[in-house]
Amino acid sequence: GAVVSQHPSRVICKSGTSVKIECRSLDFQATTMFWYRQFPKQSLMLMATSNEGSKATYEQGVEKDKFLINHASLTLSTLTVTSAHPEDSSFYICSATRLAPHEQFFGPGTRLTVL
Amino acid sequence: AQSVAQPEDQVNVAEGNPLTVKCTYSVSGNPYLFWYVQYPNRGLQFLLKYITGDNLVKGSYGFEAEFNKSQTSFHLKKPSALVSDSALYFCAVRDLVTGGGNKLTFGTGTQLKVEL
User: Fold this and answer.
1) Contact A102 B102 (CB under 8 A)
2) Is A104 part of the contact surface with chain B (CB cutoff 8 Å)?
3) DSSP string of B13-71?
4) pLDDT truncated to tens, each residue of chain A (115 aa)?
5) Shortest Cα–Cα distance, A15 to chain B (Å)
């Protein structure tokens, strides 16, 4: 089956620093990758859609200068949380799709804690 | 705009009993419908999907779901629940007409608790 990995699985950082999260599709080429944010006991909120070689499309209310997304290849997308603050603490999940068979394959998530 | 409703925050069921997790959807065109399961501090695992064809869809771990167009529902079911099925379940929809790429809209999730 299709496998998506995320690194790191957990990260703790100080307020004001930047954190990079990697999302990789291990055994397929992902035409599109998505970044979600999930608060405790809540649903997934789509932050942005990322297509290889083009700029990410951000959802309304998501600051593109704060959450930098780079989709450099068909197997790698990165999310950088710049100048992180405690309110950015959350569970960040990426997913990847290919042209078929239509479902998204999700990474295991990254738990970000900003002190 | 597409939307998904999961009316129950939590469902409790005894092991061995059948379970149902409810989901209704709203789209302007034909829907792609999905169920995912999430265990604590983990990403989402795909369970099953409905694209077209037979309204009864069978998925992983003995789960199935029935697409009902007239009721715009896609309830998740399992004939005999296991304690290990306890997790958070998400229904999701993608609207084929409006496109938006593969963008999914998720429900708020239903916590399933299976007890001995």
Assistant:
1) yes
2) yes
3) EETTS-EEE--EEE-SSPEEEEEEEE-TT--EEEEEEE-SS-SEEE-GGG-EEEEETTT
4) 678 999 999 999 999 999 999 999 998 888 889 999 998 778 889 999 988 888 899 999 999 999 999 988 889 999 999 999 999 999 999 999 876 656 788 999 999 999 9
5) 23
